[in-house]
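Entry — protein

Goal — C-alpha cells:
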Amino acid sequence: MNEKLKRGSSAYIMACSERQYLQYTSQNGLEMGSSSAISFIQSLIAQGDIAPATLRSKISALRVYLRKNNIILDEQKIREITKEYKRKKAEARFQQQENRYEPFLPENRGGPKLTSYADLSQIKQVASSLNGTHKLAFLARVFTASRISTLQNIFFANLSYYELNGVGGLKIESNLSKTNSFDRRDFIHVIRHRDPELCTIGELARLMVAKYKYNIPSENEKPFAVDYKEHNTLIKKANNINLANVTHSCRHFVGRNTH
C-alpha cells in the first residue's frame, strides 16, 4: 500500500479494504468473488464493534475493487447483512442505556414507586417536621405548585397583598423560572389556609416576626431561598413517606387534587 496516502481518505480506506480482503481470501483458501466478499464483511462485523460509517466505507471500497475485476457483489445479501447489523447495534445501544440508568430506578434505590403525597395528612406530617425557611418553601411548593428553582428567584420586592372574595392572599411576581427565561412577568397566587399548620401566608408572617422582629426586610432578600439538596434531605430523613421523586412530589400532589 502506498505510504503517501492520506490516512482516513477514501483512497486510503479503499487500499486498506483491498489489502484486508486479499489477506482474508489467502488465509482461508478462498477465491475472489461475491461469496468470499460477503464472508469477509461478516468476519469484519464478527471481529468487534466496527462503526457503521466504517462498515459502509469498506463495503463501498470492496464493491469498487470487485467491479474492477468484473465481479458483481450480491447487493441483496449486503442489504440483509447491514440491516441485521443495524438492528443489533440499536439493541446494544438500548441495552447500554438501560444498564446505565438501572441503578437509579426507584425500585433499585430501595424506594417504592409512589410519585406523590397521598393526602393532606402526609403534607402536614412533612410540614411539621420542617422549620424556618424550609417549612415555608415546602408549603409554597405545595400550594402554588411551584418548583424550588422558581421560588429561589423570588425577592421580598416581588411579594404583594391581594384579596379574593374577601379572603386575603399573597401575589408573587416571578420573572425567572424553568419555563420563563425571557424576563416575562408571571404571577403566582396563594390564599390563606384554614389549617394554621398548612398556611403559607401564616408561615411567612411567623418567619418574618422571628427573623426581623419589627424591622422591614430588605427588598433584595429572598424569603423562599433554600439549599436544594438540603431541603430534599430533610424531607427524606424526617419522614417515613416512600416517594420515588421528592423533587416533583408536590407538583404531582397538586395535579392529582386540583378540581
